[in-house]
Amino acid sequence: MNEQAMPAVTLNVADMLDNDLCISSEDGQTLFEAISSLIGENKQVIVSFEGVSMLISLFLNAAIGQLYGQFTENEVRRHLVVEGLAADDMELLRGVVENAKKYYSRPMEYDKAWTVEGDDEE
Fold first, then answer.
1. Would the pLDDT of 31 be above 80?
2. 39 CB burial (10 A radius; 0-12, 13-18, 19+)
3. Fewest C-beta atoms under 10 Å: which of 56, 72, 79, 116?
4. Cα–Cα distance for residue pair 111/94, rounded to 1 Å
5. C-alpha dihedral (111, 116, 121, 122), degrees to nearest 10
6. Alpha helices, H only, 1-122
7. What is the residue range of 33's domain?
8. Spatial CA neighbour of 60 closest among 105, 25, 103
């Protein structure tokens, strides 16, 4: 089947956030909202990490992991392209994606596991 090519939009993370440090969940949320909106418009999203000097899983959980709660794995794979990551950062992203897929497959069970009965705030 010959699928019509979808329009592509490139998001350069360092330029978009005006920062080369991808370390806050707030910045990750900003990127997530941009990606999510573009996927919702049926666009391919190329996320470029060129120029980023530091990347942590907290940022990736917010920016990329949340996509698996809003879209199917196939939709994310079809619409999202990530570029400019070093090998160790790509490995970090793979771990974030695997954890997100596990979590969003059974979120209520995972949330319940974090709740400790009788753990009242003092």
1. yes
2. buried
3. 116
4. 22
5. -160
6. 13-17, 25-40, 57-60, 67-70, 73-79, 87-105, 107-114
7. 3-107
8. 25
The helix (H) or strand (E) run that includes residue 48 is strand 44-48
pTM score, whole prediction: 0.85
List, for residues 36-58, the tens digit of each pLDDT value: 999 999 999 999 999 999 999 99
Radius of gyration for the alpha carbons in the chain, expressed in angstroms and rounded: 16
Q: Which two tokens stand for residue 67?
A: 């996509």
Count of domains observed in the chain: 1
Q: What are phi and psi of 22, to 5 degrees?
A: -100, 80
Residue 13: both structure tokens together: 């993370």
98 found inside a domain = yes
CA 38 vs CA 16, 67, 78, 105: distances in Å: 15, 12, 12, 23
